[in-house]
Amino acid sequence: MAKTEIYYVSGTGNSLVIARGIAEQLEGEAIPIASFVDRERIVSDASVIGITFPVYYADLPNIVRRFAERLDAEDGAYVFAVATYGGAAGASLDTLDRILRSRGRPLLAGFGVHMPQNAFHKWWEIKRWVYRLAERRTRFVVRSVIARRRGLHYANLPLQVVLSAFHGWLRRMTALHLEEVAGIPSPSGLDVEGLIPLTDRAFSVNDRCTGCGICAQVCPAANIEIVDERPAWLGHCENCLACVNWCPQDAIRGGIVRGAYRYRHPGVTLGEMVVRHRSKV
Ligand SMILES: Cc1cc2nc3c(=O)[nH]c(=O)nc-3n(C[C@H](O)[C@H](O)[C@H](O)COP(=O)(O)O)c2cc1C
């Protein structure tokens, strides 16, 4: 079997489950991108490299952009990506391709996998059906990787086409929303990428917080420190909502979170979410 590495980032477990499923079926390794946040270069000698991530604001998460900018893959490696999302992949796979291409390794294949929406409640969503379809989709991705299939394979093309037509407008609206969330006067001159890290200004904890530190342990961006038994956010947030959704006391409020909706993939344990930083590749 070809050496296979499936890199992933995940706030609430969806992308982790997909990455784990692909890695198991290809007899490869699932590796958290979060374990490389402080590395200048990421060198891979794998001949199959997968990158699995959640879509944020119809595009690629900042942490995946930085990962792709630092990834050194072998000549001839088959590099593919899997975007998980509640609606559509948006521009995420194209953005990843553009970054990888600038490093001399284009994205050879991209796949969309529909998963439960983790940022807000969709009353019509029946999660166990979504999981079942995602398992089927994962097997399609695995077959495609074995066949070294190329190109972009979206799960819901009509929505993808509509979103593509409005992408610029959507991102401008998102920027306005994030300025409001972060409490920054508009127009700030910052785009969505620049605003996302600042959205943690809106997080706070209520008095249910016990200072257990789980929020800091699950944060893929190493963006939380425990100070005086309370989380302090450091201004380089990814907006992944791991801190909010893994808090055992449900004590974290604010940010883009509205209402009582909380989400975690039921097949993922807290232990799997805890980020361990790699000292070497
Ligand atoms: C900040 C944020 C922005 C999101 N934006 C989108 C989006 O633009 N389109 C979409 O389909 N899903 C969006 N989602 C939903 C996630 O992409 C989706 O639920 C994903 O599977 C979560 O993966 P994870 O559990 O691995 O973090 C967003 C989620 C968050 C937290």
Can you give me a brief rundown of this structure?
Strand 6, helix 3 and strand 7 form a beta-alpha-beta unit. The chain has helices spanning 14-25, 62-70, 92-102, 127-146, 157-165, 167-182, 192-195, 214-218, 242-246, 270-273, and strands at 4-8, 29-32, 42-43, 48-54, 71-72, 78-85, 109-114, 151-153, 204-205, 224-227, 230-233, 252-253.
Percent helix: 25-40%
Strand content: 15-25%
Low-confidence stretches: none
Label the overall shape: globular
Number of helices: 10
Mean pLDDT: 95
Keywords:
globular; 10 helices; two-stranded parallel ribbon; 12 strands; six-stranded parallel β-sheet; binds flavin mononucleotide
What does the model show?
- The structure is a single chain.
- The protein has helices spanning 14-25, 62-70, 92-102, 127-146, 157-165, 167-182, 192-195, 214-218, 242-246, 270-273, and strands at residues 4-8, 29-32, 42-43, 48-54, 71-72, 78-85, 109-114, 151-153, 204-205, 224-227, 230-233, 252-253.
- The chain is of the alpha/beta class and 281 residues long.
- The strands form 4 sheets. Strands 2-1-4-6-7-8 form a 6-stranded parallel β-sheet, with helices on both faces.
- It starts with a strand and ends in an 8-residue tail after the last helix.
- Bound molecules: flavin mononucleotide (FMN).
- Flavin mononucleotide binds next to helix 1 and strand 6.
